[in-house]
TrEMBL record:
InterPro entries: KH_dom, KH_dom-like_a/b, KH_NusA_2nd, KH_sf_prok-type, NA-bd_OB-fold, NusA_N_sf, S1_domain, TF_NusA. Residues 375-410 are annotated as: Disordered. Keywords: Cytoplasm, RNA-binding, Transcription, Transcription antitermination, Transcription regulation, Transcription termination. Monomer. Binds directly to the core enzyme of the DNA-dependent RNA polymerase and to nascent RNA. One of its GO terms (cellular component) is cytosol. This is Transcription termination/antitermination protein NusA. Residues 377-410 have a biased composition (Acidic residues). Its main location: cytoplasm. It holds the Pfam family KH_NusA_1st. It comes from Sporosarcina luteola. One of its GO terms (biological process) is DNA-templated transcription termination.
Length: 410
């Protein structure tokens, strides 16, 4: 074995991050293959590489048996003991069978096999690196695109961003830098395949963890996320530390933190509400930015009836039912929204059970701890809620249909 080969092994270890033991194992396997192929040998053999001495030797391996059936694989006990009296049945006898010109032939034949094993080792390292980063956020560069998929370079590997995981309002160009969420890492014959997303709720969670120190260190916890990527999202937050305002922590000074996240998501609007174990409070908060007069809860089918002022009905429902739909996904409760007039006509408001502001509750309860970022970037916090829709002309409609978290994809 030449010193050049030893130098090459050292270079591979440093440049590729592959241990020398892995490389030596690959070379030994290649030399075994080369020996059997070029010398028409079917017996068991072992190749020994001595890196210190720079030598390589081939040894045949035969099992010690009483009666020999295949001379290429077995040796009689008597013959084995003639070599070494210590041999017993079941032992393995090794004999050097290194051909004279084995070095030249082995070098030519083993090159491709060694290259393949090194490539497999590299792929294994890449897989191990990225499989541990599933459900994590990474920076990537848009490299190319085809009819359906976008391919994002992550450094050592090219990730796939499927069409269904792309934000429809975004346009991507080669060399654009984007943040993506790793959803799945698979082993394939071509190496590790990494799948990423821009629409997954986990992307929003990780962005808040990166932007809000209180979430990163666990002081503030994200309880649930409802997202319609590229358009609008809602998140609920909670803390056990009475000295910390969970909503304010996520908003940041003058809305800087949440605005930064919205910008990263191409202007996606984000509503931040405080989580509560009381479904009455939680559902009312989740319907922000609309004001809520009454929430009645049916525990059996996890449904709620929500009463809002007449002029807030369109706001509570939202575009194509978006606000109510997101609130249902966020809370896990079905939500039936009624205007105040309709609720009075039906006799369900004021309620005889449940919660009603008119029955002496704090009118500020549902105006606190709610934050929404508007489409044009202006924010409203603890003030008059925003909405970018004009009230629907037909705002006297009875109610909207139930919106259930179970009906939506997570």
């Amino acid at each position: 074995m030449s010193s050049d080969l030893l130098d090459a092994l050292t270079a591979l270890e440093k440049q590729k991050g592959i241990s020398r033991d892995v490389i030596v194992e690959a070379i030994e396997a290649a030399l075994v293959t080369a020996y059997k192929r070029n010398f028409n040998q079917a017996q068991n053999v072992r190749v020994d590489l001595n890196l210190d001495k720079g030598t390589m030797k081939v040894y045949s391996r035969k099992d010690v048996v009483e009666e020999v059936e295949d001379e290429r694989l077995q040796i009689a006990l008597e013959d084995a003991q003639s070599i070494n009296p210590a041999y017993e049945l079941g032992d393995i006898v090794e004999e050097e069978v290194t051909p004279r010109d084995f070095g030249r032939i082995a070098a030519q034949t083993a090159k491709q096999v060694v290259t393949q094993r090194v490539r497999e080792a590299e792929r294994g390292l890449i897989y191990d690196e990225y499989v541990d980063r599933e459900d994590d956020i990474v920076n990537g560069i848009v490299e190319r695109m085809d009819a359906r998929n976008l391919y994002v370079g992550l450094g050592k590997v090219e990730a796939v961003l499927p069409a269904g995981e792309q934000i429809t309002t975004e346009s991507y160009q080669p060399h654009d830098r984007i943040k993506v969420y790793i959803t799945k890492v698979e082993r394939t014959s071509r190496g590790p395949q990494v799948f990423v997303s821009r629409t997954h709720p986990g992307l929003l969670r990780r962005l808040f963890e990166m932007e809000v120190p209180e979430i990163y260190d666990g002081t503030v916890e994200i309880k649930s996320i409802a997202r319609e990527a590229g358009d609008r999202s809602k998140i609920s937050v909670h803390t056990n530390n009475e000295a910390v305002d969970p909503v304010g922590s996520c908003v940041g000074s003058r809305g800087a933190r949440v605005q930064s996240i919205s910008n990263e998501l191409n202007g996606e609007k984000v509503d931040i509400v405080e989580w509560s174990e009381d479904p009455v409070v939680f559902v009312a908060n989740a319907l922000s930015p609309s004001k809520v007069l009454d929430v009645q809860v049916n525990e059996e089918d996890r449904s709620t009836t929500v009463v809002v002022p007449d002029y807030q009905l369109s706001l509570a429902i939202g575009k194509r039912g978006q606000n109510a739909r997101l609130a249902a996904k966020l809370t896990g409760w079905k939500i039936d929204i009624k205007s105040e007039t309709d609720a009075r006509e039906l006799g369900v408001y004021p309620s005889t059970s449940g919660f009603s502001i008119e029955e002496g509750q704090d009118k500020e309860l549902f105006e606190d701890d709610v934050y929404a970022i508007t489409e044009n970037g202006n924010d409203e916090y603890n003030g008059d809620p925003y909405f970018d829709d004009e009230p629907e002309e037909d705002s006297e409609t009875e109610t909207i249909d139930l919106y259930s978290a179970e009906d939506e994809d997570n």
